[in-house]
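In the design runs reported in the main text, the only information available to the sequence generator was the tokenized backbone. The following block is the verbatim input for one such run; it is reproduced so that readers can re-run the procedure and compare outputs position by position.
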């Protein structure tokens, strides 16, 4: 199984928003670059586009929860966009789905963040 995770980041400084597009599985074996990027993130609002995330393990879930808590601590927000049925099943199974806001797509997430500001 290919466990390569690619991370594409776009920052909109005028809207204090960062969108991170993930492609591939979110696993303990490939999570470090994402953890570093999230740690260094300075925008209060974050969208994680998971449209192309095939699956996630417990470490991946932990990183998502930590990112959410970090955004909230700094008065920001986090929206997960395009979460597949398979990934959503894992999030619901661990009951962390109740913590997050979800959008069908990254553009829908941008609208959610814009109206929340």
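Verbatim output:
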């Amino acid at each position: 199984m290919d466990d390569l995770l690619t991370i594409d980041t776009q920052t909109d400084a005028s809207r204090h928003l960062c969108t991170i597009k993930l492609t591939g599985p979110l696993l303990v074996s490939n999570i470090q670059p994402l953890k570093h990027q999230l740690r260094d993130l300075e925008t209060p609002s974050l969208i994680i586009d998971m449209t192309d995330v095939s699956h996630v393990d417990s470490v991946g879930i932990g990183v998502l929860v930590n990112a959410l808590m970090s955004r909230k601590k700094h008065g920001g927000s986090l929206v997960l966009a395009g979460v597949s049925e398979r990934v959503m099943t894992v999030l619901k199974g661990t009951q962390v789905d109740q913590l997050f806001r979800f959008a069908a797509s990254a553009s829908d997430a941008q609208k959610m963040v814009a109206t929340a500001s």
